[in-house]
Design a protein that fits this description.
Purple Acid Phosphatase, chain A, domain 2; alpha/beta
Length: 236
């Protein structure tokens, strides 16, 4: 569930792609050749080119140039393939894309999802799909609640609401000098959102609605400096 890696000289972080192949290519064009690429999950669904996105990212993983964090859409697709849940209409469309492209590619992606971490730590930086907790770095066996936090974020009940609503109390638990990068939730439609807590910890929200008409959020980390990008197809 958790993987700690040595901090490379350069990191390039890509948020939720959601099947937008052209924006993914534009983002990768911005990544330095020597950068390790981290993709924060939700590579599939919504967009029209999930198989192409998967094929490209898996090739980079195989070359040792990239790592994937599992997102809730990725896990849900793997669960549908395994017969653990029924497909939504959107996910059925994604499966049709793979069926028309390559069943072997879908099987490879499912295997990758099952082996991908839900949280990565590199130096003072941490990476998860939806939210982070210090327990992700210390618990040997993750509880279902901790897995849920990583995949869909923090929820709390609200009087009068039919469902729990998203909350962000986890940001307050980020320690000083730690910077946590997440996707999953669109908190800004134009540029990645950076939030700092009272302790000096930082959260960066990279999801900008890619695959649903929004740009693709990215971050370049080099020598302790973070440069945030908002990428659209053809903008590289």
């Amino acid at each position: 569930m958790f993987r700690c890696i040595e901090l490379p000289s350069e990191l390039f972080v890509i948020a939720d792609v959601h099947g937008d192949f052209d924006s993914l290519v534009a983002a990768l064009d911005l990544a330095p050749n020597n950068a390790l690429i981290l993709q924060l999950g939700d590579l599939v669904d919504r967009g029209s080119f999930s198989p192409l996105c998967v094929e490209l990212m898996l090739s980079l993983v195989e070359q040792g140039r990239a790592m994937l964090v599992a997102g809730n859409h990725d896990v849900a697709l793997a669960d549908v393939v395994a017969g653990k849940r029924s497909p939504t209409p959107g996910r059925a469309e994604t499966l049709e894309q793979f069926a028309a492209y390559s069943d072997d590619l879908l099987a490879s992606f499912v295997a990758s999802v099952r082996s991908s971490p839900l949280c990565i730590r590199a130096g003072d930086y941490a990476f998860a799909h939806a939210a982070w907790s210090p327990k992700m770095e210390t618990e040997q066996l993750w509880s279902d609640d901790l897995k849920r936090l990583a995949l869909v974020g923090e929820r709390r009940p609200v009087d009068g609401a039919r469902r729990p609503v998203t909350s962000h109390g986890w940001i307050d638990r980020i320690p000083q000098r730690r910077c946590v990068f997440v996707g999953h939730e669109v908190r800004s439609g134009d540029a990645p959102l950076k939030c700092e807590n009272a302790r000096g910890g930082t959260a960066v929200f990279l999801d900008l609605g890619c695959g649903s008409g929004g740009p693709l959020g990215c971050a370049h980390i080099r020598d302790g400096e973070i440069t945030l990008h908002s990428v659209r197809a053809g903008s590289s």
